[in-house]
Amino acid sequence: MTKELLIHAGIAELTVAMVEDGVLSRFWQESTIGSASGENVGTGAQAIGDIVLGRVTRVVPGINAAFVDVGMERAGFLAARDAAPRGGDREHGAGLQAHIAHCVREGEVILTQILKDPMGEKGARLTTEISLAGRLLVLVPERAGILVSRRIVQEDERARLAEIAATLVQGGAGYIVRTSAAGASEAELRDDAARLAEDWQGVVAARARAAAEPPALLHGEMGAVERSLRDEADGDVQRIVIDDAAALAQARAYAMRAMAKMEDRITLYQGREPLFEAFGVAEEIAQLGDRRLGLACGGWITIEATEGMTAIDVNSGSTLAPEDPEAMALNVNLEAAETIGRQIVLRGLGGLIVIDFIHQSSHENLKQVTDTLRAVLARDKAPAELVSVAEFGLVALTRKRVRHSFAERMTEPCAQCNGEGRRKTTAGVATEILRQVERAVLLAPGKKIRIHAAPEVADWFDAHRDELHTGLARRGALGLEMVGEAGRARARFVVDTGS
Prior knowledge:
This protein is of the alpha+beta class. The chain has five domains: about 5-35 and about 220-280, ATPase, nucleotide binding domain (Nucleotidyltransferase, domain 5, 2-Layer Sandwich); about 45-125, CATH 2.40.50.140; about 130-220, Ribosomal Protein S5, domain 2 (2-Layer Sandwich), CATH 3.30.230; about 290-400, 2-Layer Sandwich (Translation Initiation Factor IF3), CATH 3.30.110; about 420-495, Hypothetical Protein Ychn, Chain: A (3-Layer(aba) Sandwich). About 30% of the residues lie in helices and about 25% in strands. The protein has 13 helices and 26 strands. It has helices at about 90-95, 155-170, 185-210, 225-230, 245-260, 275-280, 280-285, 325-345, 365-380, 405-410, 425-445, 455-465, 465-475, and strands at about 5-10, 15-20, 25-30, 50-60, 65-70, 75-80, 110-115, 125, 130-135, 135-140, 145-150, 175, 215-220, 240, 265-270, 290-295, 300-305, 310-315, 350-355, 385-390, 395-400, 410-415, 420-425, 450-455, 480-485, 495. Residues about 35-45 and about 90-95 have low confidence and may be disordered.
Protein backbone atom coordinates (compact mmCIF):
# COMPACT_ATOMS: atom_id res chain seq x y z
CA MET A 1 0.00 0.00 0.00
CA THR A 2 1.21 3.48 -0.89
CA LYS A 3 0.54 5.90 1.96
CA GLU A 4 1.32 9.61 1.62
CA LEU A 5 0.67 12.55 3.93
CA LEU A 6 0.01 15.81 2.08
CA ILE A 7 0.24 19.18 3.86
CA HIS A 8 -0.91 22.38 2.17
CA ALA A 9 -0.01 25.64 3.94
CA GLY A 10 -2.41 28.11 2.34
CA ILE A 11 -2.78 31.84 2.75
CA ALA A 12 -5.44 31.51 5.45
CA GLU A 13 -5.56 27.81 6.32
CA LEU A 14 -3.50 24.70 6.81
CA THR A 15 -4.93 21.57 5.19
CA VAL A 16 -3.79 18.00 5.72
CA ALA A 17 -4.79 14.96 3.66
CA MET A 18 -3.85 11.30 4.01
CA VAL A 19 -3.84 9.47 0.68
CA GLU A 20 -3.71 5.67 0.59
CA ASP A 21 -3.22 4.01 -2.80
CA GLY A 22 -4.34 7.24 -4.45
CA VAL A 23 -7.55 7.45 -2.40
CA LEU A 24 -8.29 10.16 0.16
CA SER A 25 -8.63 8.45 3.55
CA ARG A 26 -8.43 11.32 6.06
CA PHE A 27 -8.73 15.06 5.74
CA TRP A 28 -8.78 18.06 8.03
CA GLN A 29 -8.10 21.77 7.86
CA GLU A 30 -7.56 24.60 10.30
CA SER A 31 -7.93 28.32 9.80
CA THR A 32 -4.85 30.43 10.49
CA ILE A 33 -6.73 33.75 10.42
CA GLY A 34 -8.58 35.31 13.34
CA SER A 35 -7.06 33.22 16.13
CA ALA A 36 -5.85 36.25 18.06
CA SER A 37 -9.40 37.61 18.34
CA GLY A 38 -11.05 34.29 19.04
CA GLU A 39 -12.87 34.48 15.71
CA ASN A 40 -11.66 31.03 14.79
CA VAL A 41 -13.87 29.29 17.34
CA GLY A 42 -16.01 27.03 15.19
CA THR A 43 -14.16 27.74 11.94
CA GLY A 44 -11.42 25.17 12.10
CA ALA A 45 -8.79 26.49 14.50
CA GLN A 46 -8.31 23.86 17.17
CA ALA A 47 -8.09 24.39 20.90
CA ILE A 48 -8.40 20.69 21.77
CA GLY A 49 -5.56 19.68 24.07
CA ASP A 50 -4.88 23.18 25.40
CA ILE A 51 -4.29 23.26 29.16
CA VAL A 52 -5.94 26.27 30.78
CA LEU A 53 -6.07 27.62 34.31
CA GLY A 54 -9.75 28.52 34.63
CA ARG A 55 -12.16 29.86 37.20
CA VAL A 56 -15.46 28.14 38.03
CA THR A 57 -18.26 30.64 37.35
CA ARG A 58 -21.29 28.46 38.09
CA VAL A 59 -22.05 25.05 39.58
CA VAL A 60 -25.34 23.52 38.40
CA PRO A 61 -26.31 20.45 40.46
CA GLY A 62 -29.39 19.86 38.27
CA ILE A 63 -27.22 18.85 35.32
CA ASN A 64 -24.33 17.64 37.50
CA ALA A 65 -21.89 20.01 35.82
CA ALA A 66 -20.13 23.33 36.18
CA PHE A 67 -19.26 26.22 33.89
CA VAL A 68 -15.69 27.46 33.83
CA ASP A 69 -14.23 30.68 32.44
CA VAL A 70 -11.34 29.57 30.21
CA GLY A 71 -10.91 32.81 28.29
CA MET A 72 -13.24 31.95 25.40
CA GLU A 73 -16.38 33.72 24.25
CA ARG A 74 -18.51 31.15 26.10
CA ALA A 75 -17.74 29.45 29.39
CA GLY A 76 -16.44 25.91 29.16
CA PHE A 77 -18.58 22.96 30.28
CA LEU A 78 -17.22 20.60 32.93
CA ALA A 79 -19.35 17.50 33.56
CA ALA A 80 -18.92 15.65 36.83
CA ARG A 81 -17.71 12.54 35.00
CA ASP A 82 -14.80 14.61 33.62
CA ALA A 83 -13.90 16.20 36.96
CA ALA A 84 -11.69 14.80 39.70
CA PRO A 85 -13.26 14.86 43.19
CA ARG A 86 -11.83 17.44 45.53
CA GLY A 87 -8.88 16.03 47.43
CA GLY A 88 -8.12 13.52 44.68
CA ASP A 89 -10.35 10.75 46.12
CA ARG A 90 -11.00 9.27 42.69
CA GLU A 91 -11.96 5.85 43.97
CA HIS A 92 -14.96 7.12 45.95
CA GLY A 93 -16.05 10.07 43.85
CA ALA A 94 -14.91 9.97 40.27
CA GLY A 95 -16.74 8.69 37.24
CA LEU A 96 -20.41 8.60 36.33
CA GLN A 97 -21.59 8.57 39.97
CA ALA A 98 -19.57 11.62 41.04
CA HIS A 99 -21.48 14.74 42.09
CA ILE A 100 -20.23 18.05 40.76
CA ALA A 101 -20.46 19.62 44.25
CA HIS A 102 -17.79 17.15 45.41
CA CYS A 103 -15.47 18.26 42.62
CA VAL A 104 -15.53 22.06 42.32
CA ARG A 105 -16.88 25.21 43.99
CA GLU A 106 -17.99 28.49 42.45
CA GLY A 107 -15.08 30.91 42.27
CA GLU A 108 -12.49 28.13 42.54
CA VAL A 109 -9.42 28.24 40.29
CA ILE A 110 -8.87 24.86 38.61
CA LEU A 111 -6.56 23.27 36.07
CA THR A 112 -8.51 22.15 33.01
CA GLN A 113 -7.88 20.76 29.55
CA ILE A 114 -10.08 21.24 26.47
CA LEU A 115 -11.64 17.97 25.32
CA LYS A 116 -13.91 19.33 22.59
CA ASP A 117 -14.09 22.60 20.71
CA PRO A 118 -17.08 24.91 21.22
CA MET A 119 -20.02 23.82 19.04
CA GLY A 120 -23.00 26.01 18.21
CA GLU A 121 -24.23 27.60 21.42
CA LYS A 122 -22.21 25.20 23.56
CA GLY A 123 -18.89 26.13 25.10
CA ALA A 124 -15.81 23.94 24.98
CA ARG A 125 -16.06 20.67 26.87
CA LEU A 126 -13.47 20.43 29.63
CA THR A 127 -11.78 17.86 31.81
CA THR A 128 -9.61 18.04 34.90
CA GLU A 129 -7.97 14.74 33.91
CA ILE A 130 -4.90 16.33 32.33
CA SER A 131 -2.87 14.45 29.70
CA LEU A 132 0.03 15.31 27.41
CA ALA A 133 0.38 13.46 24.12
CA GLY A 134 3.75 12.53 22.72
CA ARG A 135 4.76 10.58 19.66
CA LEU A 136 4.73 7.18 21.42
CA LEU A 137 3.28 7.87 24.87
CA VAL A 138 0.59 9.92 26.55
CA LEU A 139 1.60 11.22 29.98
CA VAL A 140 -1.17 11.33 32.59
CA PRO A 141 0.65 13.33 35.25
CA GLU A 142 -1.89 13.01 38.06
CA ARG A 143 -3.06 9.42 37.68
CA ALA A 144 -0.89 6.35 38.18
CA GLY A 145 -1.04 3.25 36.00
CA ILE A 146 -0.10 1.94 32.56
CA LEU A 147 -2.50 1.40 29.67
CA VAL A 148 -1.60 0.01 26.24
CA SER A 149 -3.52 0.88 23.08
CA ARG A 150 -6.07 -1.78 22.13
CA ARG A 151 -4.90 -1.49 18.52
CA ILE A 152 -1.67 -3.22 19.55
CA VAL A 153 -2.98 -6.78 19.48
CA GLN A 154 0.16 -8.93 19.87
CA GLU A 155 0.24 -9.99 23.50
CA ASP A 156 4.02 -10.26 23.73
CA GLU A 157 4.44 -6.73 22.32
CA ARG A 158 1.81 -5.37 24.72
CA ALA A 159 3.65 -6.94 27.64
CA ARG A 160 7.03 -5.60 26.46
CA LEU A 161 5.72 -2.04 26.10
CA ALA A 162 3.89 -2.13 29.44
CA GLU A 163 7.05 -3.33 31.18
CA ILE A 164 9.16 -0.53 29.69
CA ALA A 165 6.51 2.11 30.44
CA ALA A 166 6.35 1.00 34.07
CA THR A 167 10.05 1.84 34.46
CA LEU A 168 9.41 5.39 33.21
CA VAL A 169 6.86 6.31 35.88
CA GLN A 170 7.84 9.04 38.30
CA GLY A 171 5.80 10.32 41.23
CA GLY A 172 2.10 9.62 40.84
CA ALA A 173 2.11 9.79 37.05
CA GLY A 174 0.99 7.18 34.54
CA TYR A 175 1.28 6.49 30.82
CA ILE A 176 -0.87 5.43 27.92
CA VAL A 177 1.19 3.60 25.30
CA ARG A 178 0.05 4.75 21.84
CA THR A 179 -0.43 2.52 18.79
CA SER A 180 2.61 4.16 17.16
CA ALA A 181 4.80 2.70 19.92
CA ALA A 182 4.53 -0.81 18.47
CA GLY A 183 8.08 -1.91 17.63
CA ALA A 184 9.69 1.13 19.28
CA SER A 185 12.90 0.63 21.22
CA GLU A 186 13.30 1.34 24.91
CA ALA A 187 15.55 4.30 24.08
CA GLU A 188 12.84 5.83 21.86
CA LEU A 189 10.25 5.42 24.60
CA ARG A 190 12.56 6.99 27.17
CA ASP A 191 13.23 9.97 24.90
CA ASP A 192 9.50 10.50 24.41
CA ALA A 193 8.89 10.26 28.16
CA ALA A 194 11.63 12.82 28.82
CA ARG A 195 10.04 15.32 26.39
CA LEU A 196 6.65 14.85 28.05
CA ALA A 197 8.14 15.33 31.53
CA GLU A 198 9.73 18.58 30.36
CA ASP A 199 6.39 19.77 28.96
CA TRP A 200 4.63 18.98 32.25
CA GLN A 201 7.22 20.90 34.22
CA GLY A 202 6.50 23.84 31.95
CA VAL A 203 2.80 23.57 32.80
CA VAL A 204 3.58 23.47 36.54
CA ALA A 205 5.78 26.57 36.27
CA ALA A 206 3.21 28.44 34.17
CA ARG A 207 0.48 27.59 36.67
CA ALA A 208 2.49 29.09 39.51
CA ARG A 209 3.01 32.31 37.52
CA ALA A 210 -0.66 32.62 36.54
CA ALA A 211 -2.26 31.57 39.83
CA ALA A 212 -3.50 35.07 40.62
CA GLU A 213 -4.80 35.91 37.14
CA PRO A 214 -7.00 33.17 35.68
CA PRO A 215 -8.08 32.40 33.04
CA ALA A 216 -4.67 31.73 31.52
CA LEU A 217 -3.39 29.42 28.82
CA LEU A 218 -0.63 27.32 30.36
CA HIS A 219 0.14 24.95 27.50
CA GLY A 220 -0.99 25.19 23.89
CA GLU A 221 -1.32 22.03 21.84
CA MET A 222 1.26 21.93 19.05
CA GLY A 223 0.41 23.28 15.60
CA ALA A 224 -1.30 21.33 12.84
CA VAL A 225 1.96 20.51 11.01
CA GLU A 226 3.55 18.93 14.06
CA ARG A 227 0.30 17.24 15.13
CA SER A 228 -0.17 15.67 11.72
CA LEU A 229 3.30 14.14 11.95
CA ARG A 230 2.85 13.06 15.56
CA ASP A 231 -0.56 11.47 15.08
CA GLU A 232 -0.57 10.30 11.46
CA ALA A 233 2.96 9.73 10.18
CA ASP A 234 3.48 6.15 11.26
CA GLY A 235 6.05 3.81 9.77
CA ASP A 236 3.72 2.95 6.88
CA VAL A 237 3.84 6.50 5.48
CA GLN A 238 6.27 6.51 2.57
CA ARG A 239 6.22 10.26 1.88
CA ILE A 240 5.27 13.49 3.63
CA VAL A 241 4.79 16.15 0.96
CA ILE A 242 4.56 19.83 1.97
CA ASP A 243 4.03 22.75 -0.39
CA ASP A 244 5.47 25.53 1.77
CA ALA A 245 9.06 26.13 2.88
CA ALA A 246 8.14 27.44 6.35
CA ALA A 247 5.82 24.48 7.05
CA LEU A 248 8.54 22.15 5.74
CA ALA A 249 11.00 23.64 8.24
CA GLN A 250 8.50 23.09 11.08
CA ALA A 251 7.97 19.48 10.04
CA ARG A 252 11.69 18.73 9.79
CA ALA A 253 12.40 20.40 13.14
CA TYR A 254 9.74 18.23 14.80
CA ALA A 255 11.02 15.11 13.05
CA MET A 256 14.57 15.78 14.21
CA ARG A 257 13.30 16.19 17.76
CA ALA A 258 10.80 13.34 17.99
CA MET A 259 10.91 11.00 14.99
CA ALA A 260 14.30 11.08 13.30
CA LYS A 261 13.53 8.03 11.14
CA MET A 262 10.90 10.03 9.25
CA GLU A 263 13.01 13.08 8.47
CA ASP A 264 14.26 11.84 5.09
CA ARG A 265 10.66 11.14 4.00
CA ILE A 266 9.67 14.82 4.26
CA THR A 267 9.84 16.57 0.88
CA LEU A 268 8.97 19.99 -0.54
CA TYR A 269 6.41 20.09 -3.34
CA GLN A 270 7.39 22.57 -6.04
CA GLY A 271 5.01 21.73 -8.88
CA ARG A 272 3.07 24.34 -10.84
CA GLU A 273 -0.18 22.47 -10.22
CA PRO A 274 -1.87 22.80 -6.77
CA LEU A 275 -0.76 20.02 -4.42
CA PHE A 276 -4.09 18.21 -4.06
CA GLU A 277 -4.75 18.38 -7.80
CA ALA A 278 -1.35 16.88 -8.49
CA PHE A 279 -2.21 13.92 -6.24
CA GLY A 280 -5.70 13.49 -7.68
CA VAL A 281 -7.76 14.25 -4.55
CA ALA A 282 -8.83 17.87 -5.15
CA GLU A 283 -12.19 16.91 -6.66
CA GLU A 284 -13.16 14.72 -3.73
CA ILE A 285 -12.12 17.42 -1.25
CA ALA A 286 -14.31 19.92 -3.13
CA GLN A 287 -17.28 17.55 -2.77
CA LEU A 288 -17.04 17.32 1.02
CA GLY A 289 -19.57 20.13 1.38
CA ASP A 290 -22.07 18.60 -1.07
CA ARG A 291 -25.33 17.16 0.23
CA ARG A 292 -25.61 14.64 -2.60
CA LEU A 293 -22.90 12.25 -3.79
CA GLY A 294 -23.20 9.96 -6.79
CA LEU A 295 -22.31 6.26 -6.70
CA ALA A 296 -20.57 4.41 -9.54
CA CYS A 297 -23.54 2.03 -9.80
CA GLY A 298 -25.88 4.88 -10.76
CA GLY A 299 -27.37 5.50 -7.33
CA TRP A 300 -26.56 8.23 -4.88
CA ILE A 301 -26.50 9.13 -1.19
CA THR A 302 -27.86 12.29 0.44
CA ILE A 303 -26.36 13.62 3.67
CA GLU A 304 -28.49 15.93 5.80
CA ALA A 305 -27.01 17.25 9.04
CA THR A 306 -29.14 18.79 11.79
CA GLU A 307 -28.19 20.02 15.24
CA GLY A 308 -29.31 16.76 16.83
CA MET A 309 -28.32 14.12 14.28
CA THR A 310 -27.18 13.35 10.74
CA ALA A 311 -29.53 11.55 8.35
CA ILE A 312 -28.14 9.71 5.31
CA ASP A 313 -30.42 8.34 2.61
CA VAL A 314 -29.43 5.77 -0.04
CA ASN A 315 -31.19 5.92 -3.41
CA SER A 316 -30.86 3.40 -6.24
CA GLY A 317 -31.26 6.11 -8.89
CA SER A 318 -30.58 4.85 -12.39
CA THR A 319 -29.21 1.51 -11.25
CA LEU A 320 -30.60 -1.16 -13.55
CA ALA A 321 -32.76 -3.62 -11.65
CA PRO A 322 -31.98 -7.21 -12.63
CA GLU A 323 -34.47 -10.01 -12.34
CA ASP A 324 -33.49 -10.24 -8.69
CA PRO A 325 -34.27 -6.88 -6.93
CA GLU A 326 -32.54 -8.18 -3.82
CA ALA A 327 -29.26 -8.47 -5.72
CA MET A 328 -29.66 -4.90 -7.01
CA ALA A 329 -30.32 -3.61 -3.48
CA LEU A 330 -27.28 -5.46 -2.13
CA ASN A 331 -25.03 -4.06 -4.88
CA VAL A 332 -26.14 -0.46 -4.24
CA ASN A 333 -26.05 -0.81 -0.45
CA LEU A 334 -22.55 -2.30 -0.41
CA GLU A 335 -21.16 0.56 -2.49
CA ALA A 336 -23.11 3.06 -0.38
CA ALA A 337 -21.79 1.56 2.88
CA GLU A 338 -18.19 1.96 1.70
CA THR A 339 -18.84 5.55 0.57
CA ILE A 340 -20.80 6.49 3.69
CA GLY A 341 -18.09 5.14 6.00
CA ARG A 342 -15.43 7.18 4.20
CA GLN A 343 -17.60 10.33 4.15
CA ILE A 344 -18.33 10.08 7.89
CA VAL A 345 -14.59 10.10 8.56
CA LEU A 346 -13.64 12.71 5.95
CA ARG A 347 -16.41 15.13 6.94
CA GLY A 348 -15.89 14.66 10.66
CA LEU A 349 -19.52 13.67 11.26
CA GLY A 350 -20.30 12.75 14.84
CA GLY A 351 -23.05 12.13 17.34
CA LEU A 352 -26.09 10.14 16.19
CA ILE A 353 -26.02 9.12 12.52
CA VAL A 354 -29.03 7.36 10.95
CA ILE A 355 -28.66 5.66 7.55
CA ASP A 356 -31.64 4.60 5.43
CA PHE A 357 -30.31 1.84 3.16
CA ILE A 358 -32.42 0.34 0.37
CA HIS A 359 -34.75 -2.29 1.79
CA GLN A 360 -33.39 -5.84 1.78
CA SER A 361 -35.36 -8.95 2.70
CA SER A 362 -32.32 -11.08 3.43
CA HIS A 363 -30.83 -10.80 6.92
CA GLU A 364 -27.57 -12.18 5.53
CA ASN A 365 -27.40 -9.44 2.90
CA LEU A 366 -28.11 -6.74 5.48
CA LYS A 367 -25.31 -8.18 7.61
CA GLN A 368 -22.93 -7.91 4.62
CA VAL A 369 -23.79 -4.23 4.36
CA THR A 370 -23.35 -3.46 8.06
CA ASP A 371 -20.11 -5.48 8.16
CA THR A 372 -18.79 -3.35 5.29
CA LEU A 373 -19.72 -0.17 7.15
CA ARG A 374 -18.08 -1.44 10.34
CA ALA A 375 -14.90 -2.36 8.50
CA VAL A 376 -14.55 1.14 7.04
CA LEU A 377 -15.21 2.85 10.38
CA ALA A 378 -12.80 0.50 12.17
CA ARG A 379 -9.93 2.16 10.30
CA ASP A 380 -10.81 5.48 11.93
CA LYS A 381 -9.36 6.60 15.26
CA ALA A 382 -12.62 8.11 16.54
CA PRO A 383 -14.74 5.42 18.23
CA ALA A 384 -17.93 4.51 16.35
CA GLU A 385 -20.59 1.98 17.29
CA LEU A 386 -23.61 0.60 15.44
CA VAL A 387 -26.38 0.87 18.01
CA SER A 388 -29.34 -0.57 16.06
CA VAL A 389 -30.08 -2.32 12.78
CA ALA A 390 -33.70 -2.59 11.62
CA GLU A 391 -34.88 -5.25 9.17
CA PHE A 392 -36.17 -2.61 6.71
CA GLY A 393 -32.71 -1.08 6.23
CA LEU A 394 -32.50 1.66 8.86
CA VAL A 395 -29.11 1.64 10.60
CA ALA A 396 -28.24 3.89 13.56
CA LEU A 397 -24.70 4.48 14.77
CA THR A 398 -22.87 6.84 17.04
CA ARG A 399 -19.41 8.32 16.50
CA LYS A 400 -17.43 10.33 18.98
CA ARG A 401 -17.76 13.99 18.14
CA VAL A 402 -14.77 16.14 19.00
CA ARG A 403 -14.83 19.08 16.62
CA HIS A 404 -17.10 20.73 14.09
CA SER A 405 -17.88 18.82 10.92
CA PHE A 406 -16.63 20.13 7.59
CA ALA A 407 -20.07 21.59 6.77
CA GLU A 408 -20.38 23.29 10.16
CA ARG A 409 -17.01 24.99 9.73
CA MET A 410 -17.89 26.40 6.32
CA THR A 411 -21.59 27.24 6.72
CA GLU A 412 -24.03 28.89 9.12
CA PRO A 413 -27.80 28.61 9.66
CA CYS A 414 -29.88 30.40 7.03
CA ALA A 415 -33.67 30.80 6.85
CA GLN A 416 -33.77 31.57 3.12
CA CYS A 417 -31.37 29.28 1.27
CA ASN A 418 -33.47 27.35 -1.24
CA GLY A 419 -34.63 25.02 1.51
CA GLU A 420 -31.13 23.90 2.47
CA GLY A 421 -31.18 25.77 5.77
CA ARG A 422 -27.49 26.80 5.73
CA ARG A 423 -25.31 29.22 3.81
CA LYS A 424 -21.58 29.72 3.51
CA THR A 425 -20.03 31.92 6.19
CA THR A 426 -18.23 35.12 5.28
CA ALA A 427 -14.95 33.57 6.44
CA GLY A 428 -15.74 30.40 4.45
CA VAL A 429 -16.29 32.39 1.24
CA ALA A 430 -13.10 34.38 1.91
CA THR A 431 -11.18 31.13 2.29
CA GLU A 432 -12.56 29.87 -1.05
CA ILE A 433 -11.44 33.12 -2.67
CA LEU A 434 -7.94 32.75 -1.25
CA ARG A 435 -7.72 29.19 -2.61
CA GLN A 436 -8.52 30.53 -6.07
CA VAL A 437 -5.98 33.31 -5.57
CA GLU A 438 -3.31 30.67 -4.80
CA ARG A 439 -4.25 28.79 -7.96
CA ALA A 440 -4.17 31.98 -10.03
CA VAL A 441 -0.68 32.82 -8.74
CA LEU A 442 0.58 29.36 -9.70
CA LEU A 443 -0.89 29.57 -13.19
CA ALA A 444 -0.13 33.24 -13.84
CA PRO A 445 2.77 34.35 -11.62
CA GLY A 446 3.37 38.09 -11.47
CA LYS A 447 -0.06 39.10 -12.74
CA LYS A 448 -2.21 41.49 -10.75
CA ILE A 449 -5.28 39.86 -9.25
CA ARG A 450 -8.61 41.66 -8.80
CA ILE A 451 -11.38 40.18 -6.67
CA HIS A 452 -15.04 41.15 -7.08
CA ALA A 453 -16.97 40.16 -3.97
CA ALA A 454 -19.92 40.99 -1.71
CA PRO A 455 -19.43 43.97 0.64
CA GLU A 456 -19.25 41.76 3.79
CA VAL A 457 -16.55 39.64 2.19
CA ALA A 458 -14.57 42.74 1.23
CA ASP A 459 -14.94 43.97 4.81
CA TRP A 460 -13.56 40.64 6.07
CA PHE A 461 -10.45 41.06 3.89
CA ASP A 462 -10.00 44.62 5.16
CA ALA A 463 -10.40 43.59 8.81
CA HIS A 464 -7.75 40.85 8.43
CA ARG A 465 -5.37 42.75 6.16
CA ASP A 466 -2.41 42.53 8.54
CA GLU A 467 -2.88 38.81 9.23
CA LEU A 468 -3.26 38.05 5.52
CA HIS A 469 -0.13 39.94 4.55
CA THR A 470 2.29 37.18 5.53
CA GLY A 471 0.34 34.45 3.75
CA LEU A 472 -0.13 36.53 0.62
CA ALA A 473 3.58 37.37 0.53
CA ARG A 474 4.51 33.69 1.00
CA ARG A 475 2.34 32.79 -1.99
CA GLY A 476 3.54 35.71 -4.11
CA ALA A 477 0.14 37.41 -4.17
CA LEU A 478 0.84 40.89 -2.81
CA GLY A 479 -0.66 42.63 -5.86
CA LEU A 480 -4.21 41.93 -4.72
CA GLU A 481 -7.09 44.35 -5.29
CA MET A 482 -10.44 43.81 -3.56
CA VAL A 483 -13.60 45.34 -5.02
CA GLY A 484 -16.73 45.18 -2.86
CA GLU A 485 -19.88 45.37 -4.98
CA ALA A 486 -23.25 46.21 -3.46
CA GLY A 487 -25.93 43.72 -4.41
CA ARG A 488 -23.52 40.87 -5.10
CA ALA A 489 -24.49 37.66 -3.27
CA ARG A 490 -22.06 36.50 -0.61
CA ALA A 491 -21.15 33.23 -2.33
CA ARG A 492 -20.78 34.83 -5.79
CA PHE A 493 -17.32 36.18 -6.42
CA VAL A 494 -14.87 36.56 -9.30
CA VAL A 495 -11.09 36.22 -9.14
CA ASP A 496 -9.78 38.10 -12.19
CA THR A 497 -6.18 37.97 -13.43
CA GLY A 498 -6.96 40.06 -16.49
CA SER A 499 -6.00 37.24 -18.84
